[in-house]
Write a structure and sequence with these properties.
It is a single chain. The chain is an all-alpha fold. The protein folds into two domains: 2-53, no CATH class; 56-103, no CATH class. Helix content is 74%, strand content 0%. Helix 5 (55-67) runs antiparallel to helix 6 (77-91).
Length: 104
């Protein structure tokens, strides 16, 4: 989308990937970068889709969301809430914060 809408060159898009990814995705990116070296945006887009857009990943995220129960003795409420919000945001990127909050 960025490339098509704003005519941003591959080098800029790929150069920003390290700052866009967080936690697990960031580790995945660094490992892929070390293992496979430099590639253009179309290669990275394909790899991202292969890794993160599979049904098994969605099922894992949905199960984790549904199974997460706040344990006040074990969990910090804010940490638990943010993890749940991240799960829903990953599953439904277009979902508004209001709807995410209601679902949690």
């Amino acid at each position: 989308m960025l490339q098509e809408d704003f005519h941003i060159p591959d080098e800029i898009i790929v150069g920003k990937l390290h700052s866009l990814f967080t936690r697990t995705a960031n580790k995945w990116y660094y490992n892929m970068r070390q293992d496979h070296g430099k590639h253009d945006w179309s290669w990275w887009k394909s790899e991202i889709i292969n890794k993160w857009a599979k049904n098994s990943w969605r099922l894992k995220m949905e199960s984790a969301f549904e199974g997460a129960i706040l344990n006040s003795e074990k969990d910090k409420p804010l940490t638990w809430f943010i993890k749940q919000k991240d799960r829903l945001s990953a599953l439904h990127p277009d979902m508004s914060d209001t709807i995410i909050n209601m679902k949690i």
